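Page 47, continued from p. 46.
Same chain as before, 196 aa.
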Amino acid sequence: MMWVAALLGSQLAGKKKLTPTKGFGGGFGDSSSSRSRRSRQSVQSLAPYVRTLPIVIDAMLDLGQVTEDDNVYDLGCGDGRILLAAAQQRGAQGLGVDIDAERVKEANDAARHLGLYPRIQFKQQDLLTLDLSPATIVVLYLLPKSNLQLRQKLQTELSPGARIITHSFDMGDWQPTRTTQVADVINTYNIYVWNV
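Result:
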């Protein structure tokens, strides 16, 4: 997993001034990215951009039993590190979506650099408008209220046998099929899987 962090870290190193941005897929971005921020303003914010740690990604892939037969959809993919790992470590294909054009570009650049494109691709899109029916796995690292907002869409569009993997936040009163925890020196992270 260090290759993902190193690759994405080197892409961010050239930025001059980092300032917080708001909105789903936000996080820290180049202060001159007002065009990207304007394009996000009309889309509902479902979570801030927060990078997922490598130990959490590994646990998500393990708990979700991700394989080369899976089509993984990462909703709110940020810089794409979860989907990049699923493709490189497990041979999965998939699609990541985010509303932040800069994060989507970083993710596509990383996929090309690693030789994973077009098996995995990233696009700028509001995840609420995305057709989820091709997915065998949906990955979420969103806020609790956003997970709840997506429940009906997930139930309606995913096929029986599909899996939903979330990091840190559950899906309300849905009972998970499997759970695990991983920890670093500071925090403990909950990971959940539901079979549709």
